[in-house]
């Protein structure tokens, strides 16, 4: 029998993913990119900027004439992103620049879905079967959940940031410098991953210092881009307005409803020691480290839209894989699964739906006290999934083992 339910199952999932071979990965990514391109073709081929693209292009234009990008209404991104965008626009033109970051979003979304599918467990040991199942899972995440196509239709850079973060986390132990560069790049464009610097430092002991290298490279790139580019003071002084929170879920929105007025920088500073301690205590294996990291990023994001939640895709897959493996390994399998196992599957699936379909737009005009409850519930969902995966990881004798993986080096 393959690895025990818990960390052993997830280690087996990752080891299977490693054994797929490059042709399978190229086939899967090509298929995912092609299907998604067809799905969002009107947005990809539109000559008119989408709503968030319009904000970016206004910021690019302001920088091009020496003004602050924060003069563009709704621009909450690092100044480095606006400077790079202004250079692309200058040398490539507006249309080519727009096509470029649409292509980035397309490829990054496909990569995020494929990395999430890596954690799917299959009882069938024929490679073609479990490889095909993984492709089906990736397609399901891409097509059945709203975040991916809404992100592209809005022209938001969250999909690219999600791809960079997931690629970095899955490669951190094999290529720590490259992983740090990817995280640093994500910090320059959309700083969702700032909380990962203390978390990665917290896991340095169990990764032989590799995660610390990733954290230092990412931190140096992110801080360097902020310090070397003008207008950093304006970015650090940014405050989320009530209008910005509309339609979103976030810890900042919850605190604002509770009349606790904290900025994003202050919030990250307060939560950084907690991130370090949680990662140090529970990050004993690869799946746990990735699970903790993605939960920290999602929960500390200043505003979680549906497209922001795509970065969390691997964790629901991990949780469902654990339930599937547990039921499959019981005598009689699903047909004779006890009521408790069926209830567990239903509860885990419900929490997964709450994360993948979270939407804060339905209660913006309700009473603040009612909003507190309605924001807290979906905000707790990713934490609950993370706790579920961690409990399973720590319940297995293999929880502290470091399995061979696709990210252990080129093959």
Structural overview:
67% of the residues lie in helices and 0% in strands. By secondary structure, it is mostly helical.
End-to-end distance: 26 Å
Q: Which structural class is indicated by helix and strand composition?
A: mainly alpha
What pattern of helices and strands is seen along the backbone?
A: HHHHHHHHHHHHHHHHHHHH
Biggest sheet character: none
**How helix-rich are the residues, as a percent range?**
55-70%
Mean pLDDT across all amino acids:
86
Radius of gyration: 21 Å
Question: How many DSSP helices?
Answer: 20
List the main descriptive attributes of the protein structure presented here.
411 residues; disordered C terminus; mainly alpha
Fold blueprint:
Layout: H1 7-18, H2 22-39, H3 41-45, H4 51-64, H5 79-92, H6 94-117, H7 127-144, H8 147-154, H9 158-171, H10 176-189, H11 196-202, H12 210-228, H13 232-236, H14 242-245, H15 251-257, H16 264-282, H17 286-300, H18 314-328, H19 339-356, H20 368-394
Helix pairs in contact: 2-6, 2-7, 4-5, 5-6, 6-7, 6-9, 6-18, 9-10, 9-17, 10-12, 11-12, 11-16, 15-20, 16-17, 17-20, 18-19, 18-20, 19-20
Outline of the structure:
The protein has 411 residues and is mostly helical.
